[in-house]
Amino acid sequence: MNDIFIWLIVLWTFIMLGLMIIGGYFMFRKFLKKLPREDGYSELDWQDHYIQQALPLWDEESKALLNELVSPVPELFRDVAKERIAGRISKIALDEGAREITLDHIMKGYIIATPKRDHKFMKKKLNELEIDYTPYEDLFQYADDEKQKFSIFEQTEKISSRSE
């Protein structure tokens, strides 16, 4: 009986240690994104800035489409994904001097903000919504990648040069 109790304690210790390591990893990633860059603002600060600047450009239809596009993301991470994608879309629209957020802006931001490992799910969702993503095939190379991290600025600059 004592052996079983000791093994349960050892097992519980490893489970708790594993969960703390996983949580620490995600907290550290968030911490790194919050660190200021050369200009004094972090990636998240700029993301929030672009969202606030472009808020008048978002109509109900574009907000509904964004909500539909992030619906496959697990609920725990959905708000973070939505903010990340909305930040990319907003930056692209502001750079182009748009008067409103269009499907073109949403597609560009959605593609570059979605990690490459999730492209299969993204394409499935776009097919379900009957949205043609073939005109944007070249943008998949600029999508977020775990091996090669792009900043919001590098991605949108590459997209801007694409349309010229």
From TrEMBL:
<feature type="transmembrane region" description="Helical">
    <location>
        <begin position="6"/>
        <end position="28"/>
    </location>
</feature>
<keyword id="KW-0812">Transmembrane</keyword>
<keyword id="KW-1133">Transmembrane helix</keyword>
<dbReference type="Pfam" id="PF11084">
    <property type="entry name" value="DUF2621"/>
</dbReference>
<protein>
    <recommendedName>
        <fullName>DUF2621 domain-containing protein</fullName>
    </recommendedName>
</protein>
<dbReference type="InterPro" id="IPR020203">
    <property type="entry name" value="YneK"/>
</dbReference>
<keyword id="KW-0472">Membrane</keyword>
